[in-house]
Amino acid sequence: MEAPFLYITTFFSLGILLGRFLFLPYVFLTLMAASVVVLFFVYKKGKNVSLLLILPFALLGAILTGFALNAPNPYERLDGKFIAIKGKVCDVKEEEGYAKYVVKPENLPKILITQYGGEYPKKGDIVEVRGIVSLPKPSSNPGGFDYQLFLRKKGIYAVMRIHPYGTSIIGRRANLFEEILWRAQERIKENFLASMPKKDAQFLITSFLGEKVLDDQILTQFRTVGISYITAVAGMQVAIISGFVLYILSVVHLTRYRAFILLPVLIFYAFLTGLNPPVIRAVVMASIAVIGATYGKNKNSINSLSFAAFLILLFNPLMLWDVGFQLSFVATLAILYFYRPIDERLFKLPSYLKGIIALNLSAQIGTIPFVMYYFHYISFVSFLSNIAIVPLVNIAIILGFLSAFLGFVFPTASVFVNYINIPFIELLFKVTSFFEKFPYASVNVFIPPVIVIVLYYIVLGILISGIELRKKKLAVAASFMVVAVIFFWNYFVPKDLEVTFLDVGQGDATFVRTPHGRAFLIDGGGNPVFSNSSFDIGEDILLPFLYYKGVIKLDAVFISHTDIDHIGGIITVLENMKVDRVFIGVQKVEDQNFKKMMEVAGKKRVPVIFLKKGDKVEVDGVKVYVLHPDPGNLIEENPINNNALVFKMRYGNISFLFTGDIEKPAEEVLKESDLKTHVLKVAHHGSSTSSTPEFIEKADPQVFVIQVGKNSYGLPSERVVKYLKERGKLYRTDENGAVIVRTDGVKARIYPFLKGVKE
Hints:
Blueprint: H1 4-21, H2 25-44, H3 54-70, E1 82-95, E2 98-105, E3 110-115, E4 125-134, H4 147-153, E5 156-162, E6 167-172, H5 176-195, H6 198-209, H7 216-224, H8 235-251, H9 258-272, H10 277-294, H11 301-315, H12 323-345, H13 351-375, E7 377-379, H14 382-409, H15 411-436, E8 442-444, H16 450-464, H17 469-492, E9 497-501, E10 509-513, E11 519-524, H18 537-548, E12 553-554, E13 556-559, H19 564-576, E14 578-579, E15 582-585, H20 592-603, E16 608-611, E17 616-619, E18 622-628, H21 639-642, E19 646-651, E20 654-658, H22 664-670, E21 679-681, H23 693-699, E22 703-706, H24 718-727, E23 729-732, H25 733-736, E24 739-743, E25 748-752
Parallel strand pairs: 3-5, 11-13, 12-14, 13-15, 15-16, 20-21, 21-22, 22-23
Antiparallel strand pairs: 1-2, 1-4, 2-3, 4-5, 4-6, 7-8, 9-10, 9-24, 10-11, 17-18, 18-19, 19-20, 24-25
Helix pairs in contact: 1-3, 1-11, 2-3, 5-6, 5-14, 5-15, 7-15, 8-9, 8-10, 8-14, 9-10, 10-11, 11-12, 12-13, 13-14, 14-15, 16-17, 18-19, 19-20
Membrane topology: Multi-pass membrane protein
Subcellular location: Cell membrane
GO cellular component, one term: plasma membrane
């Protein structure tokens, strides 16, 4: 077996996947013990046990993952309580207006603190923070970001938001190595910032130290032209540094000491950049290669790569769900398998050029499904942009490394190196800007189904395998047939109407997919204008959900009214996705949110249609009957809420009533309309100013859905919740996550996304 760790790591990873969904520690331990006993007896009989070794590793992966995910969280008893916590600051990231830092108390797991304003602590400081503890939420929408898992990978079990008066820096405690590490990081950053334009310095800090300080506009440009990987510290940086150090050692004739010099440099660099999985992978592989070369041992790169992955997952199995881990290992594996065959087919090109092309193509072959799945785009200029930009990145990283080293021993020389580096970084930005302007440089794509991704990698595995050509062709043809069937099923076979009441926090957003795949949104949530967070409902929830559902175009958007918690995400969607038309009620008040929506719709050439009582809209057999507003009887009291668009949506015999944020005055007007419905989107997030008994009795729904999140308004009203529960089945997005309703027009089935939630 040439690469034993490839098989061990593969099955260990499969066990990790199993452990996420099945927590049966005693069953797995028993099976693991039994498998070890069987292995022992098989081995005693002199038989090959190589393949049998795989099972214990799979079970080990399942056991470790189960305990990592199901470990008791001591913060559960503190959830929602105001407490004071004293601990050591482990990591700090400053943003405009706030900072995030991790605190490790003595007797509790790590907690993530978000502080708004004031003096921010530094790594190694001892702080006391005072605030309300919250538990991070798991994904609450289909295809959504699992914040709980994201933090658990880092050993963080709770979060807290505080203001300047909620923190006190009371001392400092750091060991010698930590002080050296942190001072080195600060010295390197100060060195770059003091002698380079801010933008250039931020590029080096991001691509060399791994701190995400680069401007969002530049990051977007990198993404568009397919070079965003250069800002993630990974194998490229380790390879450049290793190559540079080895070159210097060869010049001064110290090659025989390469292992003793290079390994400490790489290990220190790994700590300097935060021990990210891609860096650990690259350092482990480089170390094995250097040690092997020093002592004359042959190395197997695939085995080294697999061993590095196994080590990382053994210490933290949850890293299997880390995007950087996945991209780094898949890209490297693809390069190891495909680089040489591609390079050999480009024999007519100059060696340097064909090397860049082969490296780029092989990495893209391996990672394109992951890029589509996580980032929802494909760059059509990445092939050309990488040829032009990679040499500039190599020069910038080499000069950055040299400057960082000289900054400790000869600061004046480091400034000179930085001056030399500036033109290369500026040229990198200009070349990036040039490629970004190409038509269709990057296009958004929907997320491919998991089975299609699996089939893609099965096909790659078949292509690089040693099976005969005829069987390869049959297997590839069969895979394409399966993909064609999936595509036909998803887009041409009629299905049930699907209505998904999304969890967008404190706001409303509902997704509707018709039987033939037409799609539209009803409202789109949004952050309050006073929010300091960079979180964007449209960008971070709506668009990922739409791509997950395979939607790259919306047939319509319905906007109930222009409060930010209903329209905010819609503006982002209009800016980033093709929308055929926007429907909104006639307006009594045209506020800034309305004007912004109209401006974006005009710029994108999306027609805006104003609806009024009595209008009817039909999308693929789904009928929308407008009940409100009445332009001849617009309401003066709280006009934005009370003149919201209210409509009944009907498919077959099943109906849904959408009410926006209307209050009692609008409900009084609507009592004369046909309100009878099966599912009611409860008005104004369950506020006591809405859902009057007369209105509810007239609508007489069997199911109520309240779209609400954590808020300071006391929503939903306890009185309203109690009353609605007496009248029918109540679902809340803050408790149940997304609420999915599927109907064939005769019967409706309801699926709360968060299972096991007390209802």
